[in-house]
RNA sequence: GGUGACGUGACCGAGUGGCUAGGUAGAGGUCUGCAAAACCUCCUACAGCGGUUCGAAUCCGCUCGUCACCUCCA
């Protein structure tokens, strides 16, 4: 399976050709959302980027297993907090089951990313559904000497692990000594830890804590980073191909994940390739829950956030995100979104030309024009030049994707291809400059790139009922003028759409055909 | 303080040591009953100052500015 897809690996800080561990299988894990509140636009970037990645990997012929987890347990309010889970806290406030809170936000999240055109992952594991796996992992880590128990809680022993030469900090370029020097060791509730760098694998739950499970150490709950190590291992193996997430997860989350996985005596980096998407900014500042400058996905779709002047459709948002490279920050503004909306629609309009172009390309006029091309001396009267140009335009699109999934570059090239196709359409006889086969290839590539790989689908703007009403107005007009051939024509056309026109005393109405 | 990233034209946003990014907006034109779409042409760039080089927006240094991670965050 030879292809030139290169990906930037955070571990090595460089791009390298992507080579699966066990081709044609590819394992991909993306850190999903924490479901204790509604996701914002920033949370959508990873799913969209990884949706394109997995779509493209499949296009390249790989058999992909794409895992995107739901973290519904294990995230504390903060270090100082004696362990009340965020979900548990909300559940207590609303007087509902924690699982209701998690389920509600999970469903909302999934409907949002689906609207954004993201295909469902192959597996969507929940942290709460993998407590046993996490406990087993902790036992393994303890057995290997990289964790210790204190008062029913278990902590990962970062200094011990690092002393064993495992390289804590290798992903994020941290040096343990520097981390220690810069750490804030004045936080309350940290007394149990031997080192400020240690992190919880298991926390004993206090009486108030609702979400709790039995374990060999205490009734409690798993630590913040463990779920991803345990679940990726369960479904993708000790080592797999690609692990992704937001740049802000690199440290400490992903660093801890690698440490946990390695501490289970698997001397790998958990994943071969670590990919990190950059942040979405608002006025140049990272969109984040804690800063409060976030726009939720619902607000974007409905236009209910004051930062933005209006609503933007899911496909506009998807296009907007893909018009930037995933490792760049992208600033969200009305102007940017409006430009994206127009660009997106331009791409959709192109989609509608493809069949017409191929049809025209096979028309007798064009075929004739091809054969009677004036023959210049020494030049074959063929379409070689035009075909090569067309193929170059297509190749540029794929070159963009191959270059670390540079969708910005790919889309730019796609517009170049579209300009060519639009040019053909403006003057159909120019189709004679390319062969029917090359045109077919190009139009297929366009469709594949836009819909299958970038996942941009046509978002109908017109409402069917409004269009129907319009048609019935013409119908009525035809009746008044007794243009019965027109009347019959409209009736027949609507019948084909499963609509019957009803002339009632009260006026013209319609109904679904019951045939 | 430590680590890292960035500063591109009206806006968004790619990129490479010498060859058009692209989208949106703006100007002119073709087309057109009007309009739209489309096509053609044009327009405003690479923060500043030095250095390397035949040549740098692209490499190096400094300055200024912005941001991110080091605490939950995609």
UniProtKB/TrEMBL annotation:
Its cofactor is Zn(2+). The keyword Metal-binding applies. GO terms for biological process: cysteinyl-tRNA aminoacylation. Zn(2+) binds at residues 31, 228, 253, 257. One of its GO terms (molecular function) is zinc ion binding. A motif ('KMSKS' region) lies at residues 286-290. Its EC number is 6.1.1.16. A motif ('HIGH' region) lies at residues 33-43. It is found in: Cytoplasm. It is an enzyme of class 6 (ligase). ATP binds at residue 289. Binds 1 zinc ion per subunit. Keywords: Aminoacyl-tRNA synthetase, ATP-binding, Cytoplasm, Ligase, Metal-binding, Nucleotide-binding, Protein biosynthesis, Zinc. It catalyses: tRNA(Cys) + L-cysteine + ATP = L-cysteinyl-tRNA(Cys) + AMP + diphosphate. Residues 396-468 form the Cysteinyl-tRNA synthetase class Ia DALR domain. Signal peptide: none annotated. Belongs to the class-I aminoacyl-tRNA synthetase family. Monomer. This is Cysteine--tRNA ligase. It comes from Hymenobacter fodinae.
């Amino acid at each position: 399976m030879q292809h030139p897809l290169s990906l930037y690996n955070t571990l090595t800080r460089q791009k390298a050709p992507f080579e699966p561990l066990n081709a044609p299988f590819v394992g991909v894990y993306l850190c999903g959302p924490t479901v204790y509140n509604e996701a914002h636009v920033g949370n959508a970037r990873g799913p969209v980027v990884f949706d394109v990645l997995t779509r493209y990997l499949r296009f390249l012929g790989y058999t992909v297993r794409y895992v995107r987890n739901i973290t519904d347990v294990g995230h504390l309010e903060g270090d100082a907090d004696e362990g009340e889970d965020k979900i548990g806290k909300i559940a207590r406030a609303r007087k509902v089951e924690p699982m209701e809170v998690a389920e509600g936000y999970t469903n909302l999240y999934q409907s949002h990313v689906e609207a954004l055109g993201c295909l469902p992952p192959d597996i969507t594991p929940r942290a709460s559904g993998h407590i046993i796996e996490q406990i087993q992992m902790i036992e393994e880590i303890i057995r290997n000497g990289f964790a210790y128990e204190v008062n029913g809680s278990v902590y990962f022993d970062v200094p011990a692990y690092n002393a064993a030469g495992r390289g804590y900090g290798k992903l994020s370029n941290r040096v343990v000594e520097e981390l220690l020097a810069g750490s804030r060791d004045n936080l309350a509730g940290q007394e149990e830890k031997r080192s400020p760098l240690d992190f919880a694998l298991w926390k004993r739950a206090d009486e108030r804590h609702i979400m709790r499970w039995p374990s060999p150490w205490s009734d409690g709950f798993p630590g913040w980073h463990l779920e991803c190590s345990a679940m990726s291992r369960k479904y993708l193996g000790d080592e797999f191909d690609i692990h992704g997430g937001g740049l802000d997860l690199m440290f400490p989350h992903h660093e801890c994940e690698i440490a946990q996985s390695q501490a289970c005596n698997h001397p790998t980096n958990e994943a071969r390739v670590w990919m990190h998407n950059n942040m979405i900014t608002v006025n140049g500042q990272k969109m984040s829950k804690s800063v409060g400058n976030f726009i939720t996905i619902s607000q974007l779709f409905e236009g209910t956030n004051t930062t933005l002047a209006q609503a933007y459709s899911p496909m506009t948002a998807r296009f907007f995100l893909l018009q930037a490279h995933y490792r760049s920050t992208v600033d969200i503004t009305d102007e940017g979104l409006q430009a994206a909306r127009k660009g997106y629609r331009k791409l959709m309009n192109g989609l509608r030309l493809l069949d017409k172009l191929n049809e025209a390309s096979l028309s007798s006029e064009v075929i004739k024009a091809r054969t009677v091309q004036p023959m210049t001396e020494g030049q074959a009267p063929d379409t070689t030049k035009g075909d090569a140009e067309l193929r170059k335009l297509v190749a540029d699109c794929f070159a963009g994707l191959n270059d670390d999934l540079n969708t910005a570059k790919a889309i730019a090239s796609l517009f170049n291809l579209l300009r060519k196709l639009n040019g053909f359409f403006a003057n159909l006889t120019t189709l004679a400059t390319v062969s029917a086969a090359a045109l077919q290839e190009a139009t297929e590539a366009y469709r594949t790139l836009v819909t299958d790989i970038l996942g941009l689908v046509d978002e109908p703007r017109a409402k069917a009922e409004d269009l129907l009403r319009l048609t019935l107005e013409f119908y009525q007009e035809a009746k008044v003028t007794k243009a019965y051939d027109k009347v019959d024509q409209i009736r027949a056309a609507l019948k084909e759409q499963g609509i019957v026109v009803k002339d009632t005393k009260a006026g013209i109405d319609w109904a679904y055909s019951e045939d």
